[in-house]
Description:
Radius of gyration: 22 Å
Helix content: 25-40%
Low-confidence stretches: none
Shape: globular
Strand content: 15-25%
Number of strands: 13
Largest sheet: 5 strands, mixed
Mean pLDDT: 95
Structural class: alpha/beta
Amino acid sequence: MFDLKIVGGTVVDGTGVPGYLADVGIKDGRIVDVRRRAATDDGLPGDAAETIDARGHVVAPGFVDIHTHYDGQVSWDSMLEPSSGHGVTTVVTGNCGVGFAPVRPGREDWLIELMEGVEDIPGTALTEGISWGWESYPEYLDVIERGRFSVDVGSQIAHGPVRAYAMGERGARNEPATPEDIAAMARLVREGVEAGALGFSTSRTLGHRAMDGEPVPGTFAAEDELFGLGRAMAAGGQAVFELAPEGVGGEDILAPKRELAWMERLAGEIDRPVTFALIQIDAAPQLWREQLEISAAAHAAGSRLYPQIAA
Length: 311
């Protein structure tokens, strides 16, 4: 006997095959049978405690939203709305080099202003809603783990907080990192991935600024810093390097292809996926096609380079 049957719907299963008419049987929280059917047959045999008539509807797996900014909202909203109402069953936070861990005591408001400036999330909501209770990134994950959410939550360790934690005001002001600074940041990144971070993120676009107008920490990071943190991430385990590249918002139409060159080298060296934001820009409306072609060629050559397409 099934706990639940979903009958008569058009199943779009995420594998790329065309949608097909099918019934779905669920028991103990798991899909145990998917039976194709004709419109006229009786469908999946067996009784169920509950049956949902899905005729005229699409039945699909939950969506994994790999690019969200729920870093603060996980502190107060168990529903994680609006994503949970849109069929999303997993969210990934910590994108674009902004997040809330690690944080030195007394620097919480600075991180709030960083997130408010970059992602336009009201600072008042973050100030009133975040419970804090952590300093290190592993401690932040511990706090998330104690929550009960309507969807699964994954997190990445972000360049901005890491740079400010390791370098203080020099890091916050985007001063060049010394070898000692890079080593300190690398230890934090590796620690984060070993604790459960899904990846490391950074931002290089001038469109991402804190409330005071300053570019986010890491915007002008040199290759030795980027590659040092990429290697540390890879040393920590299976993880993804995510970024908003220079020029992504159209502020520089030559930069995106320059960025792809080092991203390809990094992905090849660390043998980890590198994923970057890709949007169409008015100043060069066909540039995105060139970026896709370069990414596909890099991937074919062995560098795991993945564009994130903004809808």
